[in-house]
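Q: Could you fold this chain for me?
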Amino acid sequence: MRPGSAAATLFVLALAVPGLAWAQETPETRVEDIVVLGTPLREQVETFADTVVAPPHGRGPARWSARSGICVGVVNLQRDAAQAMADRVSEVALDLGLPIGEPGCSPNILIIATDDAPTLTAALVERSPNAFRPPYSGSSRSRLQLRRFIESDAPVRWWHVSLPVNSETGAVAVRLPGYDPPRTGVMASRLTTVIQNDLRRAYVIIDIDQAENVSVRQLSDYVAMVAFAQIDPDADLSGFPTILNVFDNPTIAFGLTDWDQSYLGSLYGAELNRSNPNAQSGAVAALMFRERRRIEDDRAAELEDAEAE
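A: Sure. Below is the predicted structure, expressed as structure tokens.
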């Protein structure tokens, strides 16, 4: 399968879906970040990092690589809304240190709005099944989870495709059909590995009717969160200040919260070289804890200064 060909096929198929209007933005409200009271910060962070992540079985968390870059495609929104969403998702990519593709690039983050998400999703998977579950190890979540993706009744559903690669060279690190076995290099020790998991495609499908109570900015930031991290769609995150709760509480945030930004920044900043996938998630949590503690210390210092004046 030629890189990008499946995504291009799906992009053409998506264009055939009738256009939809986008509702006007709802008033934008931002409240202070609040996490469950009485829980130590380290426990909060570790619980969040462990709950939110959903890589393929036996794999550590994947992330986009600066080698491949990001190309965002938005289908079925009015032009202004589509451009605003593509710009915002691209802005988050730049904040994470990821390069953006030139105009006309083949989308590797494909965002589709529709008034019949289950039917559209089923059609996309039936049309190009290997685009969603490529025939190599570590590419995606299970067939059962793909079925749940198709049948979901959530306002937004998403699916990631990843590829194990050599972190030093970018060479493919799994056996691909029709190719010779990979050469991945020598591991530094039993505890570390040169293999990392790179995101290669993300499909995000929006049920336009269920998303009408949030603003374009809120929806765009929600989409960015699920596009740049392998978020578990079934995770209970009600105790955390994250944009992922926006459909249950549209006033929770104007966009990505400090908590969301800390998680994404830690995911893309952590050293994911541990052989144990759980240890890789632990590295993300450890970096996020240090970032959140720094933020809390800074806020405490600002409060002390304000009280002293």
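A (continued): Residues 9 and 128 are 8 Å apart (CA to CA).
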